[in-house]
Every structure is written in structure tokens, then in C-alpha cells.
Amino acid sequence: MPLRTMLLVLLLVPSAALVGLWGLATYELGSEYRVQAAQHDLKTTVGPRNAALFNALQRERRLTQEALAAPEAPRTALVGQRAATDRALRAFEPLASADTSDGQQGLAAAISRTVRVTGRLAQERRAVDAGTADEERAFTYYTEAVEAGTEVFAAISRGADGEVTGLSQVLFDLNGAVDMINREDAVLARSWPSGRLSDEDRDLVTDAVGTHEYLLESRVAPNLNAEETRLYTAMTRSEEWRARAELEERLQASGGGGVELSPARAREWRASADASIARLEELIGVHSQVSNAAGAAGVQQLKLYLYSIAALGLFAVVMVVLMTWRLTTLLRRRVLAVHGQAQDLGQRLPQVVARLVQGENVDVDAEVPELSPAADEFGELSRALNLAGRTAVHTAVRQAEQHRGFERLLQRIARRTQLLIGLQLKKLDELERRHEDPRLLEDLFDLDHLTARLRRYEENLVILAGGQPRRRWRKPVPLLDVLRAAQGEVQDYRRIEIDVEGRPWISERAVGPLIHILAELMENATAFSKPPAPVEVKAAPVSRGVVVEMEDRGLGMAAEQYEAVNALMQAPPQMDVMTRADDVRLGLYVVARLSAGLGLQVELRPSAFGGTRVIVLVPQDLVAERPRSVPDAAGGPTPEDAGTPLPPPRRHAGPRPADGSDDLPVRSRGQAMADVAAPAPAPTGPPAPRTGPVPLPRRTRQANLVAELRAPAPQDAPDPQTPSSAPTRSGATIGAFQRQSRKNRAGARPSAPGTDQSEPPTREDRG
């Protein structure tokens, strides 16, 4: 971008941003002014109409209760009040179609509910006149209509202006107090003719008294101004107010079984209640004027503030635009030289860093020569840019050298440790061939298992340091043996269940990395799932190669964690192990690097069991055909083995990888005791009854391995017994061992006549 264009951007972008901010501020103030003005108009329009309907419904409720309690009394007052209520209702109903989009929240719903409830007023009146509605039904309906009006008061008491909202809340509480006194009056109105106040009605009166006393004393009185406080004090000290309060106390103090009411009390209550309500309505009128005046003043003040801010903002925008234009014109000449230097440095630094990443040596003085700029502000800027470039290149060179040196040191240490581990594995293999004691073999197998895991951890260091594992195979290996080898490098290998469909083989160049990848994934599955939950590993050929599915029953991960891990598998980073020392997912980095090198596809998904399901796709170019020299049964389990859990892994004494490292681990503790002796051939005649314990079955060493993995016996070791037929499955051997063990534990008993002790193990024996 040309320098002139950049300066124009520096001019236009801040100017446009300032104009946008000015416009946004003006719009927000205008919107606030519009909302407050609309809320003030609605309050001054809805409030008086709702108050008129509110008071009319309360008076009609009391007169209706009196008419139902004394049907023979004249209803002149009730008829007149109904006409007044109808006038108030006709004035209120047009509010349902008023525009309340900028009004208080919930106002439209409250008005609609009031119109809907009062729509049943004519029906309820007819029921009262016909005598089909009792006092309780009429009281419930009118109370519902009054409560709808109370909701309207609550809605208009909310607003955008905090001061006006506080004043409106006091007005709402005053109307609530009036409602409670009128409700109390309606309950007593239906009790005066009978001369007795029931316990239920006394409870209603008590609740109403407590509510209006709380509203007036706790919510209204503390929030009144001086004039309103004077009116409130005069109201509460008046004779009528005291008379009504004393009568309420006498009604509340009465015991159970109802309260006796006299005509004298009725006349006393009527006078005091009417006077109290009139004083409350006077106080409401005064407070309404105060609240409306505060709302109008707030709207006017906001309008003035809006005009002032808009004018000042516009003036500031114009001044900023003019000053910025002038300054950018003056600075353009001075920036050209520095711009050229920065452009040159910006082009050179990425090239230097890219060369360092590729392993090239960089000379700092040659790449970023030191400059001698002019002695002014822009000269200081040029000198700072030059110094920053030299410092950046020098720092990148040192970090690259330190990183490469650390990787070489880490690989050297890991390689030496791998040599020692390889020697240890060879020594353990010799001891396993030499000894037949089951206990000693079990300890040797445990030590062998730990050493195999240690070898994998050392390979992790090599991989993270930028190297590759050196275990190599010269021939293809069955996938089943690869899975067992990976299982043998896992600490909690007994929980892993392997099931292979068909007899797929893996190319020799993929055996070592695939074992490492599967071992890391199996260890993660066992580590993050609670024992003894199994980890199911299934493999099967597909159209694009071979798929290995691994599923645990742990806690799983969040959706974003699955996305992050799958992204890591797709593009493993060039990781500096020193910066990842605290990351618990180092095994996943190893899997990502090895998978990227082989072209494997690894994907993690949520499992139906709540854990994690890992899918490893081995491409077709890494899948080998079964060698012709290998018998058909050597490639994996027979069809009847499908679904049968494989025995725990063990190491065998077969051929080693091409680099001399250890071979595939496929031996378990359970098979150690089966190494003691081989099963005797079955007798041709009827077996003689046994008088001693049944001998344990014997296992032929390496009988369950394919030909490529078998190794000749050592020179100093006795010749192993040659099997008379194809090797049986390791699962059958363990089943036979378990069957004979159960017989021995049951005691030495003679065999039944005609029973062949050498009969092959049944499916139940295979366990």
C-alpha cells in the first residue's frame, strides 16, 4: 500500500470511527429520549384511567357484597356505581390498542389482561342479579379484576429514569394500601347484615390489615417528601383513621368461633373507612402530581442534554478531521525514508527466520547491517528499527541453536538408554528360555513388561525431539500380533479385549510405528477409564485399508476438546518439547507425529458408553498380503474365535526386528504355568481309572506364533517338543489349564469309565 494511501487511511479511519461514535451516541441518546418521553406519556395517560377503573371496581365490589348479603335491601347505590364503572371501563378499553412498543415492560400484557377480565363484568352482574352467584364468587371475580388493575400500576411504575421509577413505586404501594382497605371493607360488608364475622373472613381481614400497615409504614412513609409527609401524618393522626385502626384491632383480637358484629360497629366502620380511603386518595393525587412533574422534568433535561451532546460532538468531529488532514500532510515527507527502511526490514526478517527453521546458519551482521541515521526523531526511529531487527535475528539464531542442541542431546541420551533397554530385553528373553519355574517366569514376565513400557517411553522422547523410532521389521506381521504387541506395552493390559475380523497383515515398515501408536492410545483408554471396565479393540478390513476401533468407558471429553485433538491429529505442530513440559497430552503429540509420517488417519469421537472412541485407519499401501510360506491358520484366530477375548499379552522368543530391538510381546502370566509340560497323547484304549491328581496340561513353546516370528531354540537349551499338528489357540490352552486346575482342586477322584482324558477343551473350557 502506498504511503499516501496509508496516511489517508490514518485520516479516514479515525475520522470515520469518530463520526460513527458521534452518530451512535446521538442515536442512543435520541432513543433514550424517545423511550422516556413515550413512558411519561403512557404514564400520564394510562395512570388516571386505570385509577378511575381501579377505584370504581373496588366500590362496586363492596356494594355487590352488601346486595348479596341483604337481597331485600334497595340496590340504588349499586346501580349508580355500575354506571360509573361502565364509564371508567369505556375510557380504559381504548388503551388496549395504544402503541406501547417504547413503553414500560409488561404494560401491554397488563392492559390486555385487565380488558379481558373486565369483559366478563356484564356476565357476573347478571349472575348477581339472578341470584346464581354467591358472595364468595362475586368477591373472587371483583378481586381478580382489581388485581389486574394493580398489575397495570406495577407496569407503569417501571421506567428508564431511576428517580421517576422510585416515585412511581411509592404510588404503586399507596394504591396497594387502598386495595387492602377496600378488600377488608368488602369482606366486612357481607358480614354486617348477619351480625357475625366467620373465622375465614376474620383471617382475610387480618391479612389485609397487616399488608396495608406494612405498605404504609415500611414502603410509603420513608419515601415521601415534606409536603406528602405532612399529609401522611395528618391522615394517620385523624380521628377516623384511629377509629378504623381500633376497630381492626378489636376484630383481630377476637377469639375463634366467629366475631359478633353490631349495627353500631357497622356505622362506625363505614364512617371511618370512607374517611380513611378519601385521605389516602388525596395523598395519591398529590404524589401523582410530584411523580408526573419529575417525569416531565427528566424528559426535558434529557432533551436538552441530547441537543448539547449532538452539537458538541459534531464540532469535535469537524475539528479532528481538519487537524488530522493537516498533520498527515506534514508527516508524509518525513515518513517516506523510515517507511522504506521498515519495508526492507519487513522483507528481510521473515526470510531469515524461515532459513533458521530449515536449519541454515545465519550471520547477523551480514543480514542486518548496522545503520547511522540522522540525529532527529525519525532518525531515532530508524535506529530503533535497525536495533530491533538485529536483536530479533540474534535471538532467533540463539533459540534455534539451543533448540537443535537440546534435541540432539535428548536424542543421544534416549538412544543410549534404548541400547541398554535392548540389552536388558535380550537378557530377559534368555532367562525366559532358560527357566521353567512358573513363579520365576511370572516375575520375569512382569519385569519384561515394565521394560517394554520403558522402551516405549524412551521412544517418545526420541519422537518429540524430532527423531524416529529405530525398531524395524524385515517381513510383514499379522495385525493380531501387532495389536497384542501394543497391548503388551500397556500397564493395565488385562482390561484390553481384542477382536480381529479376518487375517489382515501389516507391511513391515509400518509395524513399529503402528505398535507405538496403538500402545499410546490403549494406555490413554485404560488410564482415563475406571477399572475394571474393559477397553474394546476391534479391527477389520475396509475398502481403503484396515480400521482399528478402540472404545473405553471413561468420562470422555468435551466437544471442543475432541475438535482440538482431531485438529492436532490432522496437523501436528513442530513442537518444542521444552515449551510442552507441563502438557499431559504428550502421548497424543507422539501419535500425531507418527500418524502423519505413516499417512494414518486417527479420529476421536464420543462413545455411546460415555467414554471415547478412537478410529485408526491404516491405508491400503500399509496393508500387506499374507506371505505364501505362512499357513492359512497362522494369520489370526479361526472364525469360531471371533468375539472371544484374547489372552493377556506375552513376549515370545521369535525373531527380532531388523535393527536388533525386541520383538512383539504376546505372553501372559496365565500361560507361564502352562509352559511346564506338554499334554500327553490320548490313549487308544479305555482309560484306566486315575488314583492320583490329574496332571496339568503342557504347552509347546512358540506353538501359537506364525512362522515369521518363531526363533530357533538356544544351543544350550533342550530341544522343545515338536507339535504333532498345527498349534492350537492360546485361549484353548488356557481353558484346558483352567479345567485341569479345577479338577485338581476338587481332589484326586477316579475318572468315569469311558471318559477320554485327552478330549479337546470345549467352548466352556475356553472360557
Automatic annotation (TrEMBL):
Residues 722-731 have a biased composition (Polar residues). Residues 680-696 have a biased composition (Pro residues). Its EC number is 2.7.13.3. The chain crosses the membrane at residues 304-325. It comes from the Bacteria. Residues 628-767 are annotated as: Disordered. It is an enzyme of class 2 (transferase). The keyword Nucleotidyltransferase does not apply. This is histidine kinase. It holds the Pfam family HATPase_c. Keywords: Kinase, Membrane, Phosphoprotein, Transferase, Transmembrane, Transmembrane helix. It catalyses: ATP + protein L-histidine = ADP + protein N-phospho-L-histidine. Residues 509-622 form the Histidine kinase/HSP90-like ATPase domain.
